[in-house]
Design goal:
Structural class: alpha+beta
Shape: flat
Keywords: DNA-binding, Transcription, Transcription regulation
Radius of gyration: 22 Å
Order of helices and strands: HHHEEHEHEEEEEEHEEEHH
Strand order of the largest sheet: 4-3-5-12-6
Protein name: LysR family transcriptional regulator
Pfam families: HTH_1, LysR_substrate
Number of helices: 8
Distance between the termini: 59 Å
Largest sheet: 5 strands, mixed
Number of strands: 12
Strand content: 15-25%
Family: Belongs to the LysR transcriptional regulatory family.
Length: about 300
C-alpha cells in the first residue's frame, strides 16, 4: 500500500488538536482542503479515522490504533531522509528551544567548533511538543517537566533554576524581596501541565470583574496582560525574563518552591555527529557550575 506521508502528517495534527479548524490553521491550509486530504487518507486505508461533530473531531477505534504507528512512520521517514542527507552533505543540526531560554552562546560555540556544519535554531511553544519526535528539530533545550514522553529520548540535566513571582507593578507584593508562597494564600494557583509555570485564576480587582481564564490558544503576551492589569499572578523560571521588559510588571524571587530543571533532550538513537558536541557545549555553558561562575543564577 502506498500511503502518502503528507496525509499521515495531516492526520497526526488533526488528532493532536481534535478540531479541523485549528489543525488547518496550524498547517496553513483551508479547512475544506484539510478535510478532503483526511478523506483521501481514509480512502487509502479503507477505514474511518475520525468521528466528526459540531463540537470537534474524535478518533475512531481505527484512528486510535493508527495514531502511534503514524507517528513512528513519520519519525522513521525523517530519520531515513536525515541519514541519506548526512552521507553526502555537511553535518546539520537544528536546535529547538522553548520558553524564555536563551541559547545564543551555545549556538555560537557550536558554530565555532564546526565551521563546515550548519547550525540552525527554532523557537518552539507548547503546541510543538512533537517537534523532536517528528524530526523537525534534532535537539531541544527546555524547562522540565517536559511536555512529551521521554521513551526513546536521551535527557541530560543541565542545571536547576529557582523561580520568581510575576505580578503587576502595583501588586502589594511587588516590592517584596523575596516572597513566600504563604503570602499567596489568597490566590488560587494552578500549575500548567508539563511546564514549570504556575498561573493564578483571574479574580476581580476593585470594581472591575474577573475576566475569563486564559484560553488554550491564548499567547504568552495575552496572559501577561492579565498579570499587568492585576487580575492574576504567575510563577515563572527565574531566567525567563520576557516579562522584565515591561514597566507595569514586577518579578519577585520565591523562596519556598521547588526549583525547575533546564534539560537538553535528543533522540536516543540519532547518529547526528553534532549532537555529542552540542551536549558538551551545553554542559559547559548552561551547566550549574558555569552559571554560578558568571553570577547568572538568581539567589534564592
Amino acid at each position: 500500500m502506498d500511503v502518502d506521508l503528507r496525509l499521515v502528517r495531516y492526520f497526526t495534527v488533526v488528532a493532536e488538536y481534535g478540531n479541523f479548524g485549528r489543525a488547518a490553521t496550524k498547517l496553513h491550509l483551508a479547512q475544506p482542503s484539510l478535510s478532503r486530504q483526511i478523506q483521501r487518507l481514509e480512502a487509502q486505508l479503507g477505514v474511518r479515522l475520525f468521528d466528526r461533530s459540531p463540537q470537534g473531531s474524535s478518533l475512531t477505534d481505527a484512528g486510535q490504533a493508527f495514531l502511534p504507528r503514524a507517528r513512528i512512520l513519520l519519525q522513521e521517514a525523517e530519520q531515513a531522509a536525515h541519514t541519506a542527507r548526512a552521507a553526502v552533505q555537511p553535518p546539520t543540526i537544528t536546535v529547538g528551544y522553548a520558553g524564555g531560554l536563551i541559547i545564543t552562546a551555545c549556538v555560537q560555540e557550536l558554530r565555532r567548533r564546526h565551521p563546515d556544519g550548519q547550525v540552525r535554531t527554532r523557537h518552539l511553544d507548547w503546541r510543538d511538543r512533537h517537534a523532536l519526535a517528528e524530526g523537525r528539530v534534532d535537539a531541544l533545550v527546555a524547562y522540565g517537566p517536559l511536555p512529551l514522553p521521554t521513551d526513546g529520548f536521551r535527557v541530560t540535566k543541565l542545571h536547576e533554576e529557582s523561580r520568581v513571582l510575576v505580578t503587576s507593578a502595583s501588586h502589594h507584593l511587588a516590592n517584596e524581596k523575596p516572597v513566600s508562597l504563604r503570602a499567596l494564600s489568597d490566590e488560587e494557583l494552578v500549575a500548567c501541565v508539563s511546564t514549570p509555570v504556575v498561573w493564578s485564576t483571574p479574580k476581580p480587582v476593585g470594581d472591575r470583574p474577573a475576566p475569563p481564564p486564559p484560553a488554550i490558544d491564548d499567547s504568552y503576551e495575552d496572559k501577561l496582560e492579565l498579570i499587568a492589569t492585576g487580575h492574576c499572578v504567575a510563577i515563572f523560571p527565574a531566567s525567563d525574563r520576557r516579562a522584565a521588559v515591561r514597566e507595569d510588571i514586577a518579578l519577585v524571587p520565591v523562596i519556598d518552591i521547588d526549583p525547575c530543571e533546564v534539560v537538553l533532550v535528543t533522540r536516543a538513537d540519532d547518529p547526528n555527529p553534532l549532537l555529542g558536541s552540542l551536549e558538551d557545549v551545553a554542559r559547559t555553558l548552561l551547566g550549574t557550575a558555569s552559571l554560578r561562575e558568571n553570577n547568572e543564577l538568581p539567589v534564592n
